[in-house]
Structures are given as C-alpha cells and as structure tokens.
Write a structure and sequence with these properties.
With 235 residues, the protein is an alpha/beta fold. The chain contains nine helices and nine strands. It starts with a strand and ends in a 16-residue tail after the last helix.
Length: 235
C-alpha cells in the first residue's frame, strides 16, 4: 500500500472548536451512519478543505477513516498531497485499469486512508454509477469506521445525486453571504430527491464580525472559517 503525505495547515482556535462541534454532531447522527457524502452548491466554497479537516478530526479520535475523492472533474484534494501523486486513482479503478488495492493509500496521519481522484475521465458520471463504485463503498464500509466522500458541487453537476443512494447521509456546505437562499434550497431539494438523508448544513467562511464576539474578546480579531452543522435527523 502506497503512503502519501498530507499538507496540513494550522487552524485558529475558534476554527478547531467549530470543527469539533461538527464532528460531535456527526457522531450523534446515529450508530447506523458510517458513509457520508460531502457536497456544496457551487465551486470554491471550501468543501474539500472542510472534508479533509473533518477526516483528520475523526482520525484524531482513533477512528479508522477513509477519504474518497470523487470529484474526478476538478479535484482539489490532490493539491494537499506533498510529493508525487499516486500512480492510480478512483478513475483508474472505476474504469477497470487497476485493482482496488492499487488505489487505497495510507496517509502519514495514523488511521487515515485515502483514495484520490486520479486522471480526469471523459465520463465521470457513468463511472460513479458503475458496479465498481458500489463495490468500493461496500469494501470501505466493511473495513473502516467512517467513509467520507468528497463530491463535486450538486449545483453544477449530477454526480453527488448518483452516489448519494449508496451513502448513509449527506452534508451540504454553503459559503456565508455568497449563495442565495433560492439556490441553496434548490441544492437541498436535489439531494433530498435521492432518498439519502441530509444530516446537516455547514455554513463556511463566517466572518467573526457577525458571529465571533466571544472569540474576538479572548483571541483577537480575525476573519476565519467556521463550521456549523445542524442535524435534521430527529430519531
């Protein structure tokens, strides 16, 4: 199994606290929730960064976690790899060019594994709806405590809706003051139509001027990314 090194950024105290809150809310969604899909309304909202940070946070608890980069159109996670990229990725496996063992990588973070997106294919939606994708998620569900899938924005492509039925829950990330209410509602409706429950909505890139007075008093003024999750699972 190939080992990859991750580029990790030091987060401000308040960001780490919000990330822990997100992690806690996720863990309390239910013992039957192990495979999570992360999507956003549009590109550039910080989805991939939050996804990786969440996986790192779950691994810190001693959980075996695997991150699947399913954004084969425009992967952002590949930019968080230090050193050479893996030879094979998700697109290679789904197209039958390699075996599953060839794409699962161990990271330099204990108990965190990853499957990177691989080369950009001409038919990502078709690959994601293949039997190979079902086998991958089934394998990961059996061998890891948590599976987190980073998907393209649902507001731009249908890929997340294709994968969602294979998952236990969806998290929708929205950038504060950037995505209009109507567009956020449309993205939510698309994911609800898949039958996969929406576990929460994450509000990202929140200005401390509006929401961080407590932290401003004790830790100084700054603009920061904050993660908020509100569970819609009432059971």
């Amino acid at each position: 199994m190939q080992t990859i090194r991750l580029k990790r950024e030091k987060r401000p105290y308040e960001v780490n606290e919000e990330l822990k809150l997100l992690r806690t809310n996720l863990l309390f969604c239910g013992a039957d929730k192990h495979v999570f899909l992360m999507t956003s309304a549009f590109a550039g909202e910080g989805k991939s960064t939050v996804t990786l940070d969440l996986c790192l946070s779950l691994a810190e608890l001693g959980k075996n976690v695997i991150l699947i980069d399913a954004d084969m159109r425009k992967s952002m996670l590949k930019h968080r790899i230090v050193g050479p990229q893996p030879e094979n990725g998700l697109s290679h496996y789904l197209s039958g060019q390699c075996q599953l063992d060839d794409v699962v990588c161990q990271t330099d973070v204990e108990q965190l594994y990853a499957v990177l997106a691989g080369a950009v294919p001409p038919n990502p939606t078709e690959l994601l709806s293949s039997e190979q994708m079902k086998r991958l998620i089934s394998f990961c569900r059996e061998h890891f405590d948590y599976v987190v899938i980073d998907c393209p924005p649902i507001g731009l492509v249908v890929d997340p809706a294709v994968i969602a039925p294979l998952c236990d829950g969806t998290m929708l990330l929205i950038e504060a003051n950037q995505v209009k209410y109507r567009l956020a509602q449309e993205s939510t409706a698309k994911m609800k139509a898949t039958g996969c429950p929406i576990l929460g909505v994450i509000l990202n890139k929140v200005s401390e001027k509006k929401f961080g007075r407590y932290y401003t008093k004790y830790y100084g003024k700054r603009y920061y990314k904050a993660y908020y999750a509100h569970s819609e699972n009432k059971s």
